[in-house]
Amino acid sequence: QVLLVESGGGLVQAGGSLRLSCAASGRTDLIDTMTWFRQAPQAPGKQREVVTRITWRGGNPWYADSVKGRFTISRDNGKNAVYLQMNNLKPEDTAVYYCAARSAIATTSEYWGQGTRVTVSS
After folding, report:
1. d(Cα 18, Cα 93) in Å, to the nearest integer?
2. Which of 53, 20, 61 has the alpha carbon at shortest distance from 34?
3. Structural contact between residues 34 and 54, judged by C-beta atoms closer than 8 angstroms
4. How far apart are the first and last CA of the chain?
5. Residue 34 CB burial class (10 angstroms; 0-12, 13-18, ≥19)
6. Residues above pLDDT 90, as percent of the chain
């Protein structure tokens, strides 16, 4: 079992920055890929959007076009943590952000955090 806890959300003005953290515990040896998803509050029925992901050991980050150049994902294996640095935030970035972990044998993320809310005011 992998436990994930996000933190760092909050209210920020457009153009501002936030840094989200995702602390992993438990069977972190199972983790192959960490992904940040987001769920916009005005679209609860829509599928969560993949924002960015990174492999636990090799890096190799991937970004959605909507955040490319503004968001940066990083990891600290020593601290069992993944971070999401969000710069030049826009109102459309407002969402609940979730980190999720996928093991090497899975096709989808199996472990999820509880989410942290990011609100960007215009």
Report:
1. 11
2. 53
3. yes
4. 40
5. buried
6. 84
The average pLDDT across 77-104 equals 95
With CA atoms as reference, report the closest residue to 89 among 12, 20, 8, 36.
Answer: 12
108 Cβ contact partners less than 8 Å away, ≥ 6 residues apart: 102
In what helix (H) or strand (E) does residue 72 lie, and over which residues does it extend? strand 71-76
All residues at 6 or more sequence positions from 116 whose CB lies less than 8 Å from its CB, including other chains: 6, 7, 8, 9, 20, 96, 97, 98
Check if the beta carbon of residue 51 is closer than 8 Å to that of residue 68. no
Count of positions (residues) in the chain: 122
- Identify the pLDDT of residue 59: 79
pLDDT, averaged across the chain: 94
Q: What is the pLDDT of residue 96?
A: 95
